[in-house]
Structure formats: structure tokens, C-alpha cells
């Protein structure tokens, strides 16, 4: 039965999509059966994985799934062995209003995924940088939240918003939700700022598990722009090693429970 993990942070550009894509590849490379879901109307994850094919899925994507126009099995694309995707689409933002006005709107994704959870080990959901109905659906159906964080001043302060949202979801729709951990991203030693922020983060949220730090890496950016995972682009580099370490850490945390 799949463990469902939301990759979430309401702050934009912190690495949610990068983390979803590369952690997904890392888990699949370790032989885990992985389903990625893109619930972001910006469809960056989908574009990263299938490029212009994103246009082909107008009638079978996460939006048509949430409005019940599609069956879940129709929406799944095989990216490679062990790595599947439910894509987003250009028209997802238009669907938002329809979903907001529909019955049981917070549980649409949970209900849609139920039949296929036994087919996977991990479901990773990439979320938009906003607190709308997509993020609520995603957190309602998740066992865990993984929060990528940029170690800037606003990044650390913004964590409180995520924790507030998680508390609300736990009270209202998903008592089981728990924090898998925070993943500090774009770490660099070129300035003292990230190190100072990391220390502040530990002091402010002593109970939040801090997972493997991902270094600032040009290779990651280049890989993304070419539609490749870091393992395909620069498999021996620092970023690939960090993602592999993170994948092992996630497996240990999730599977020992
Ligand atoms: N560790 C890193 N080193 C260098 N560049 C990175 C790193 N992580 C992410 N990036 C780059 O930062 C940009 C934003 O990353 P990404 O798209 O993953 O963030 P996001 O949180 O998904 O953004 P959004 O909130 O818009 O969905 C991308 O260009 C990505 O390639
Ligand atoms: Mg993104």
C-alpha cells in the first residue's frame, strides 16, 4: 500500500518541483514503485517529465480526475520503469472553480486515488505555491508532508504558515497527517546566511526533523531545463549524491514505522 507524501511550501521557487522529480527518480531507481502527481496549474513537473506532450493530456489529467470526467487509471502515464505520473494541464486553473463548487471538494483526490494505492510504494504530490483547493486536497490525502525550504530570512519565517495549515488540515480533514521533515535546499557556503538560518530554524522548531540538505547546484538547474533528472544529467555529482541520501533517509523514516 502506497505511502502518500505531499511536497509542499506556500512559498514559490523553493524547490518543490525539483525535489518531487529527483526524489521520485531516486526512489524508482531503488526499485520502489512510484507515482508522481502534479496538482500545480503551472505544470512544471509535468513539463519536466513529458515536455510538450503535456498538451496531449487535455482530457486525462489531474483536473479531469478531480472533476470526475476521468477514471484514475486513464490519467496515469508511464515515464519509465517504476515511475508513473498523473499530469497537470494548462486548463487546471479553470477547473479550480468547478472543483470549489463541487460536493466533497476537499476529498476528491483522496477518493480518486484509493483504488490504485495498492499498486505503488510511494505517491509524491507536487503542489502549487498557494493555499487553495489543490493543496487542501493534497494534504487531505497524504500521510506525510515534506517541506523544501530555502534558507533565506523569509523562507524560515514562512514555515509558520505551513505549520498553521497542517494544523488546520489535521483538525478538519486528516488527523493522520504528519511532518516527514524539512529539506533545506540551495545550500551554499559562499555566504554565511544559509548557515545562520539553519541554526535559527533548529532553535525555532526543535521538533521538526531536518533531513538531508540539498546543495545549490548549477547541474540541478541545467538538468531541469533539459527535462532530465539529476541522476541522468550528472549522476556522480554532489546534488545526485544528496538526493540519493535523501531517498534513503525517506525510506528509513517511512518503512521503519
Ligand atoms: N538546489 C538547487 N540548486 C540550484 N537551483 C535549484 C535548486 N533547487 C531548485 N533550483 C532551481 O530553482 C528554481 C525553482 O525550483 P522549483 O521549480 O523546484 O521550485 P518550486 O518550489 O517548485 O517553485 P513553484 O513554487 O513556482 O512551484 C528552478 O529553476 C530550479 O531549477
Ligand atoms: Mg513547482
UniProtKB/TrEMBL annotation:
Residues 4-178 form the AAA domain. This is AAA domain-containing protein. It comes from Palaeococcus pacificus DY20341. Transmembrane segments: none annotated. PANTHER family: COBYRINIC ACID AC-DIAMIDE SYNTHASE (PTHR13696:SF99), P-LOOP CONTAINING NUCLEOSIDE TRIPHOSPHATE HYDROLASE (PTHR13696). InterPro entries: AAA_dom, DNA_Partitioning_ATPase, P-loop_NTPase. The lineage of its organism: Archaea, Methanobacteriati, Methanobacteriota, Thermococci, Thermococcales. It holds the Pfam family AAA_31.
Amino acid at each position: 500500500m502506497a505511502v502518500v507524501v505531499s511536497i509542499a511550501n506556500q512559498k514559490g521557487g523553493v524547490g518543490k518541483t525539483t525535489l518531487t522529480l529527483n526524489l521520485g527518480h531516486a526512489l524508482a531507481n531503488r526499485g520502489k514503485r512510484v507515482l508522481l502527481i502534479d496538482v500545480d496549474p503551472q505544470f512544471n513537473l509535468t513539463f519536466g517529465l513529458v515536455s510538450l506532450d503535456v498538451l496531449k493530456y487535455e482530457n486525462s489529467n489531474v483536473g479531469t480526475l478531480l472533476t470526475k470526467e476521468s477514471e484514475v487509471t486513464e490519467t496515469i502515464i508511464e515515464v519509465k520503469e517504476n515511475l508513473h505520473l498523473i499530469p497537470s494541464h494548462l486548463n487546471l486553473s479553470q477547473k479550480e472553480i468547478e472543483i470549489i463548487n463541487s460536493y466533497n471538494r476537499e476529498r476528491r483526490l483522496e477518493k480518486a486515488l484509493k483504488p490504485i494505492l495498492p499498486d505503488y510504494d510511494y505517491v509524491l504530490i507536487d503542489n502549487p505555491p498557494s493555499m487553495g483547493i489543490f493543496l487542501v486536497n493534497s494534504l487531505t490525502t497524504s500521510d506525510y508532508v515534506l517541506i523544501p525550504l530555502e534558507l533565506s530570512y523569509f523562507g524560515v519565517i514562512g514555515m509558520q504558515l505551513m505549520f498553521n495549515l497542517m494544523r488546520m488540515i489535521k483538525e478538519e480533514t486528516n488527523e493522520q497527517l504528519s511532518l516527514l521533515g524539512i529539506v533545506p535546499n540551495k545550500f551554499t557556503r559562499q555566504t554565511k546566511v544559509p548557515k545562520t538560518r539553519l541554526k535559527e530554524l533548529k532553535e525555532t522548531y526543535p521538533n521538526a526533523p531536518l533531513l538531508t540538505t540539498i546543495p545549490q547546484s548549477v547541474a540541478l538547474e541545467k538538468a531541469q531545463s533539459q527535462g532530465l533528472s539529476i541522476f541522468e544529467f550528472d549522476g556522480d555529482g554532489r546534488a545526485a549524491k544528496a538526493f540519493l541520501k535523501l531517498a534513503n533517509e525517506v525510506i528509513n523514516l517511512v518503512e521503519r514505522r
